[in-house]
Design the sequence.
């Protein structure tokens, strides 16, 4: 399983909102985004609650968003919403719907049949016992290709254009391959899969539980999406999900609905950083492209920057602060010292939080952080590309000039054009609005 699945968080809440869309949705554990309009009187009460809890709202993907890192504050926030009539869809609510949606029954496969294949690329069949893909033997006869596979099962074909999924059906006496979307294929695979045990390990402190991806192969996107939203990011072990101990029962309930039984391992796993917690990293060890985004926007806010060996001094109307960078999970402030998690530099919303904190502390000039970050954001990973393109698309209808700037500045255009070309040629797939992206690119072409 890849840890880099690109997902629209709210896409997997569509089934939850069939009757009525709530005002707020918990996108990640402790992070709440406004997804439906709130009456101005309720919004005023909501702002008072957030201020009382000493949390600063921000705009993420053009949505009002607030984050509560402390479990007690999260609970107090949720309890307060009832008193002001603001509805919310929490991850706990989402888990209940998933458990109703997925039934822990096992469908039996049909007989093994000979099936014609359209090509001789790499073909694999889902193995319900191991939940892994197993390669099938391709039979070549008279320049035609076939294989033996089980009725009702899922086949995957991998070529230079990516992976395609098929289900093996029988209509009368004819056995055929029925093309399927990946999401539907994985959901069917979860009904074919047989029960397995998945082992989780405690961390060295005993406060967190870790499930490596190899323990839970080929999860449906809906389940994987929920676990990612509930879990904690950790760069040291990217191929694993990490949860707070008090969320383990929720994880267990959701996995059990697809016949995965969580079992505690006798082993422990270290998730602490090699750098001592809280100690400053050397600036030269931080990605220059990521750090430059932060520095350039501070300059746009009229902040003065003085770079030292292990820290950066930023001055403004209200004095100065020292920025240090740590490999901790969270950023924090102590007087004139601001510690920034290096992982925050890889996340636009967390970068926005850091910039807002600096701006407020130093009295810097107010700039629209959401659009400014999207203009400066580099394309290093696929997630970066998806973020930049989606930002441009979302702004296009209201501000086409800004949309053009987002994709054209800071050496991003060539990468986006190449990706868009692959989409057109069928060599890559995307859920983004590539028609609108094409319109934005066209504006950059000489008349």
Sequence:
């Amino acid at each position: 399983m890849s840890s880099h699945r690109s997902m629209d968080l709210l896409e997997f809440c569509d089934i939850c909102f069939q009757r009525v869309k709530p005002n707020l949705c918990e996108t990640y554990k402790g992070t709440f985004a406004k997804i439906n309009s709130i009456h101005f009187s309720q919004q005023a009460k909501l702002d008072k609650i957030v201020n009382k809890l000493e949390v600063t709202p921000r705009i993420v993907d053009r949505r009002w968003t607030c984050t509560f890192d402390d479990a007690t504050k999260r609970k107090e926030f949720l309890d307060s919403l009832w008193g002001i009539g603001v509805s919310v869809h929490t991850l706990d609510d989402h888990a209940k719907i998933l458990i109703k949606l997925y039934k822990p029954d096992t469908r039996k496969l049909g007989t093994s049949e000979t099936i014609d294949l359209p090509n001789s690329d790499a073909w694999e069949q889902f193995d319900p016992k191991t939940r892994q893909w197993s390669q099938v033997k391709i039979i070549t006869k008279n320049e035609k290709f076939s294989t033996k596979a089980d009725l009702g099962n899922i086949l995957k074909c991998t070529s230079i254009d990516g992976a395609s999924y098929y289900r093996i059906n029988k209509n009368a006496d004819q056995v055929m391959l029925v093309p399927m979307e990946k999401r539907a294929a994985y959901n069917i695979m979860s009904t074919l899969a047989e029960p397995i045990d998945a082992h989780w390990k405690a961390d060295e402190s005993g406060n967190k539980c870790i499930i490596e991806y190899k323990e839970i192969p080929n999860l449906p996107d809906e389940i994987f999406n929920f676990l990612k939203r509930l879990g904690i990011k950790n760069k040291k072990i990217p191929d694993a999900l990490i949860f707070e101990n008090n969320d383990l029962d929720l994880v267990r309930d959701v996995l059990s609905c697809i016949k995965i039984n969580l079992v505690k391992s006798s082993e422990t796993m270290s998730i602490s950083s090699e750098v001592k917690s809280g100690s400053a990293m050397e600036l030269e060890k931080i990605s220059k492209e990521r750090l430059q985004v932060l520095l350039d926007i501070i300059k746009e806010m009229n902040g003065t920057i003085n770079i030292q060996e292990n820290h950066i001094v930023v001055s403004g109307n209200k004095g100065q602060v020292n920025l240090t960078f740590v490999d901790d999970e969270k950023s924090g402030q102590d007087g004139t010292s601001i510690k920034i998690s290096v992982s925050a530099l890889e996340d636009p919303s967390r970068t926005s939080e850091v910039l807002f904190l600096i701006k407020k502390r130093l009295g810097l000039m107010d700039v629209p952080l959401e659009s400014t970050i999207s203009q400066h954001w580099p394309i290093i990973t696929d997630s970066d590309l998806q973020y930049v393109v989606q930002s441009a698309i979302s702004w296009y209808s209201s501000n086409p000039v800004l949309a053009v700037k987002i994709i054209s500045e800071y050496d991003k255009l060539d990468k986006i054009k190449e990706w868009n070309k692959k989409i057109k040629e069928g060599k890559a797939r995307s859920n983004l609005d590539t028609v609108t992206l094409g319109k934005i690119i066209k504006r950059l072409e000489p008349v």
Remarks:
- The chain has five domains: 9-101, 112-192, 197-269, 283-375, 379-442.
- The chain has 13 helices and 22 strands.
- The CA atoms of residues 190 and 339 lie 43 Å apart.
- The two ends are 46 Å apart (CA to CA).
